[in-house]
Design brief:
The complex is a heterodimer. Chain A is mainly alpha-helical. In chain A, 73% of the residues lie in helices and 1% in strands. The longest helix of chain A has 27 residues. The C terminus of chain A is likely disordered. The relative contact order of chain B is 0.18. Classes of the chains: A mainly alpha, B alpha/beta. At the A-B interface, helix 9 of A face helix 2 and helix 3 of B.
Chain lengths: 326, 235
Amino acid sequence: MDIDKLKPLVVFVVVLCFLPPILGFNNYYVLIVTYILFYAVVVSAWNIIGGFAGQLDLGAGAYVGLGCYAMGTLLIKWNVTPWIGIIASGIVSVFFAAVIGYAAFRFGLKEVWYALATIASVVVLQKFFLVWEEVGGPAERYLPVKYGSIYYLRFATYTPYYYILLALLAISIFINIWVRESKLGFDLLAVRENEEAAEMLGVDARMSKLKALMIYSFLTGVAGALYALIAGYIHPSQFDNSISLEVAVLGIVGGLGSIYSPPASVFILHTLSEYLRSTIGAWIPGVHLIFYGVVLMVTLIFIPEGLSSLFKKLSLKYKPSKREIG
Amino acid sequence: MLLEVKNIDVYYGMVQVLWGISFNVEKGELVTIVGSNGAGKTRTLLTIAGMKKPRSGRIIFNGKEINGLQPHQVAKKGISLVPEGRRLFPNLTVKENLLMGAYIKKAREKRDETLKEVFELFPRLEERKNQVARTLSGGEAQMLAIARGLMSRPLLLMLDEPSLGLAPKLVSEVFRSIEKLKKVGTTILLVEQNVAKGLEIADRGYVLENGRIVLQGEGKELLVNEKVRKAYLAI
């Protein structure tokens, strides 16, 4: 891999390293940026299936929920360290994604039908976990309170989670770059541009979509496990289809297929959304969502290709143009 | 025999659209399947390409049975389909589209060589090699689709209605290039609504009607056939 391609990633991560000190380690602010990082990770992972492969996947809530439950159950029932639990979460999510994805791609589910199938999987899983008494059923199950323990990955402040998620974001962006440069990346590009033509030329469309889905679900499952660690409990409400929608919206507004714009736009839009919530939302609860919705709509009306095209235009102003595929 | 289709039945959902279709293509031949809209021509090609599955019957290519294979596996066996409506990669350049055509491993090794040959056959494409595919005219886009199909160095090139939606002058141009391809030894299975032109250049032809093959014979022979003249040539 070209080392030059990793330079922006290093800059991105180093800058974000300084965010908690800048915020004075204020626990509330750090929690907000930690949640932003969580979304940035999932959106960046989603970019592989949504941006590169062009599949409108709305299953993020399912993988987040499975991540919460896999890690949480291992920890609560068998006292397994979350370090193992996090990996297990990823693996459980991949298995579920493989089942859904194999069926969907085998029978040629595309576009809105694929979107509906994936968002349905979130709802089905939520109901399923509501009645599964062994893992808690409808009750909240709390993670052990062992603050300050590296083994239990439980901390009294949110700063450690911030840095763990930052590391995960770096991994996710790295995987994005790696996929884009690999044969899989080119296969996905061809599938996104014209799936049937790609197949006729010899691209195994089904397999490449499945691979993209599995990479995305692994990262999302891992992020889900961290989400449960931050929240401190597991509950079926963590199978949340509003996460699915938010991730897809942020991915699209950020710019499909661009590597840095989707996570970057999470920072911009989520900061804005939190700001609106603490100001207008404090005045009349819920009104901030209207403003946030308007901002998203205006963005898509004026920059339909997403914020990435805006970033590109800005960067082109300052350096000679360089053509790139995708 | 390069391609042998034996008695295939194909369904569209619950409805049967192809009834016991049998035909064959020899190496180096240009075989044309003609028929009116909805006769099942496109579906026949899609079935060979693995995009649709026959419910019964066999498809044998180069001595091996290929029914049941997925499209990308069929492509690897050496069949190249130039689909109806071209299906180019609209945001890639002409050259990039062509390079995508040489996707399968066997073709990738000889990519530059094939590209040179293809540019010799279609000099227009060389002039426009850096142009984005979506900005090509209809005729050029069709040339590109055919050229991309050739990039995989196929044993059999299948062309689905290459004259569709083109101005008469361009139609002749497309048929001239198909004849050129035949001269350099490409085996071609052509599907056409333009019965007169399609049969004129064919070694052999088949007439498809409502999902059944009703006539077959040498191209020139079919052109003078009473039934064909009445039904398709309006003479």
